[in-house]
Amino acid sequence: MLICLLLALITLALYWPATHFDFINYDDPDYIIYNPPIQHGITGAALVWAFTTSHASNWHPLTWVSHTVDCALYGLNPGGHHLTNLLFHTANVVLLFLVLCQWTGAPWRSALVAALFAWHPLHVESVAWVSERKDVLSAFFWLLTLAAYGRYAKGRKVYYFLALFFFALGLLSKPMVVTLPFVLLLLDFWPLKRTAAPGLFLEKIPFFALAALECVATLWAQREANSVVSFGILPFSARLANALVSCVLYLWKMLWPVDLALPYPYSRVWTFWPAAGAGCLLLLISAGAILRARRQPYLIVGWLWFLGTLTPVIGLAQVGIQPMADRYSYVPLIGVFIMAAWAIPGAWTRWPRPGLVLGAVAAGALGFLLAGAETQLQYWRNSVALFSHTVAVTRNNILAEYNLAEALARQGDEAEAVVHYQRVLAIAPNRVEAHYNSQTQAHYNLGLIFRARQQWAEAEAQFRACLRADPNLARARHNLDAVLREMSNDKARMRK
Q1: How many CA atoms lie less than 13 Å away from 41 in the CB half-sphere?
Q2: Residue ranges of domains in the chain
Q3: Average pLDDT for residues 231-251, to the nearest whole number?
Q4: I want to staple 128 with a disulfide (CB 3.0 to 4.6 A). Which of 13, 83, 197, 380 is the partner?
Q5: Average pLDDT, stretch 247-261?
């Protein structure tokens, strides 16, 4: 209980500043600020909407319900929404420790995994971004499923139905939970050691059936929103290369979590050699884990946990503009943390006073991660800070430049906003970025700024460029007509 208390208090202290942060202008407007169905409390209409909508390219009704509850409690005060994310993350940290400790009887290793999960900078995005409620909420039910399944595995049959219930709630929170039945099979191997139990696959059939239904619902939602990138735009070879390199990049950022960004641009399509090198490294690690499976079963379990839970979001089925995202590592990295927490102490037994040495190394690593997470968290205080950082650590990032320009314009810094809108227009988008083209809206927003400044010629040029990209954009046509009238009036006044 002391370990639980310590983990919870440090996590709350680390992320408490987020309760004073603003919403950001990426997804938060779509999810919360300009989303009327969630803003009128828990009503029948709100629940029907939550379970039938494909809004924001997702089907996650329980996540919508959680946002609805927040709006009922806090209105549009962002601090309350951030607090809910923080409480779920803290609960996840404690649950992860308790589940691992219950299954393995190794409290210090379990505490190390929970601490790495709690304080790693890669996980700041999932906690500090209100729209990523689906991450912390789905992980909460993921871990409750594991807790119930562990009780079932020890002979308490009624917990099977509780595990299935929690799994269903996880699926209603985020589609990424579909990989959990595979993880249960891994955990049967280690640490539950149930490989001799009959019917291991048969007992998972209800879990796989629910996962299949979730896949159908998710595909429907994404196609309804036209958010799936076709193979004509991004061929399978490019997707595979990106998947291989991204897996390695997640591991690298786990070890050295600097230059984290939202979003990472899909401005680089990996060539054969980087992809081949990444593939060889992944195969080498996989082979090592397989060869040590009998002596060190946690290696293969942790490694397949990492690879398997990343599969839905690794880009083989590309949805959205990002080639990878920090938030996608929230659950997958637990597998690697398990590998480290169980393998590294064994490697230190040959050292003199190994407990003292290992404790010092663990404390240093956790201190490094806490400092990194604290720094990364500050970038999330508002949109200008977040996207200024992203622009600084990435190149040719159309979406980050656009969001930064929009945020600057909203806070009244129009001169700097114009600079970043012009950078958006100067970047040549590749085919993926063109599918989610921000440049049309950049032309329109520049036109509005120039119109407000009465720079009629510049405004006309921007609205015409906007209409060339989208001839059916009525608001651009309306503003262009207004600008042309003003130009005509100016000419008439000059003649008088």
Answers
A1: 1
A2: 2-381, 383-495
A3: 90
A4: 380
A5: 96
pLDDT at 267: 66
Instruction: Examine the pLDDT at 347 and tell me if it is beyond 70.
Output: no
Q: Any idea which architecture 383-495 has in CATH?
A: Alpha Horseshoe (1.25)
Contact (Cβ atoms closer than 8 angstroms) between residue 351 and residue 219: no
CB atoms within 10 A of CB 391: 18
The Cα–Cα gap between 256 and 253 comes to 5
Nearest to 88 by CA among 129, 43, 149, 38: 129
Distances (CA, A) of 201 to 113, 127, 143: 28, 34, 21
pLDDT above 70 for 350: no
Residues 6+ apart with CB under 8 A from 196: none
Peptide bond into 297 cis (omega under 30): no
pLDDT digits (tens, 9 = 90+) for 130-162: 999 999 999 999 999 999 999 999 988 999 999
Sign of CA dihedral 384, 326, 83, 222: positive
User: Which tokens go with 446?
Assistant: 């520049």
Instruction: Tell which residue, 308, 286, 295, has the closest CA to residue 343.
Output: 295
Cα–Cα distance, 315 to 269 (Å, whole number):
12
Q: Tell me the C-alpha distance between 454 and 457, whole Å.
A: 9
Predicted confidence at residue 229, as pLDDT, reads 80
